[in-house]
Specification:
The protein folds into two domains: 1-82, no CATH class; 84-168, no CATH class. Helix 1 (12-27) runs antiparallel to helix 2 (38-49). With 214 residues, the chain is of the alpha+beta class. The chain has eight helices and five strands.
Length: 214
Amino acid sequence: MGDVPIPPFADGASARRFWRLLLLFLHQAKRPGESVSLHHFLLAMTIDEHAPDRDGARCSSCTQPYPCRTVLRVVLFARFPVDWTPHGLSALLVDVGLLSHSATFTPTSWDWYDSDYSEHISRDADTGEWSRRRHGKGENYENVLPVGDDAAMCRYIAGYTFSSHPFPFGWAVDPQEVTDARAGTPAALQHWGEHSQYPYIGSHIDCGTAESDS
């Protein structure tokens, strides 16, 4: 895909291009011939709701710096290809509350301190590779572990935002609540089955990414 604008955006046009490319990226995240799923459509509705404001500085819905935490969580987990720098990504995550102040960072170092463990990650000026040392219970701080290049480091930082899973994935769930919720799903699926036949959705059945494109 074409170059994705990198936050913070220079202007509203860059922010809106980021938003459009994200929605199109998610739109293509299915195989050609597969129908657009209800979940696929609902995700698009959510990202559409969290569009940038006219200036591109803030989310038009929640007023957080754009991209807001809702959009950023999707961006990072979906591996939307943004050419982040570790420092820039970290600063943005702190701004929207996805990375705590336990993290401190510069363009060439990244540190984490909390009651359970500490971690120091540094960038080699010659190779551009990051390596880390972690100090926790039963761990040897002298062990130096490779992280990789800037892109790998950004993925590593993103991992700090995935500590809480969306309900109900990874949660203990009350079986009675599952039963109560399921009672309404037949009508919802029937509604989607009918609504998805409208051309504005049904015409997208051939859109997507083939295995040969991988």
